[in-house]
């Protein structure tokens, strides 16, 4: 009973309904159903170059987050692939055009979910036995850092509570745990911007 089959199993009794933005319209040319007035576009496809960046997007995109970057923003995504997982980022200008794409984490294994930190880093989680959490820089300036104190297990997601300065983590196994990690220091500022 793999994760890919869960959606159909758990949503079998779900019914379509209006969300806060209105009823979903029929799928567009990209196969994406959006509310009236919304548009969508494909920004990356696995193993294809992202815009004019020269970077080929990774396979099995998974957990991700967005980060403000001056007038634009950065979107990053994990790669849930064995042995070559990691994570990458796409940088956007204020008008939504893609200005860059680049790798932010290499040499890891089955990076599934993770979590955004209040100090503008991404915690990328390995979803394998004895997997680790890596703190990455979405801006591509600083090297990723393994955080072994956050445990070695089949990590899924993390959520940072900035008020209590703790990180909550989940474990992706049938009898998995729910963990609370209290770091000895908690950063308050983000990394430098990418040039």
Task: From the structure above, extract its key features.
single chain; 195 residues; 4-stranded antiparallel beta sheet; 1 helix; mainly beta; 33% strand; 11 strands
What's this model, at a glance?
With 195 residues, the chain is an all-beta fold. It has one helix at 6-10; strands at 61-69, 72-79, 87-92, 98-105, 111-116, 122-126, 133-136, 145-146, 155-161, 166-171, 178-181. A hairpin with an 8-residue loop joins strand 7 (133-136) and strand 8.
Helix content: under 10%
Sheet with most strands: 4 strands, antiparallel
Mean pLDDT across every amino acid position:
89
Separation of the first and last Cα atoms? 45 Å
What is the 3D form?
globular
What is the number of strand segments? 11
Biggest sheet strand line-up: 1-2-3-4
- Segments where pLDDT lies below 50 for 5+ residues? 188-195
Q: Structural class of the helix and strand makeup?
A: mainly beta
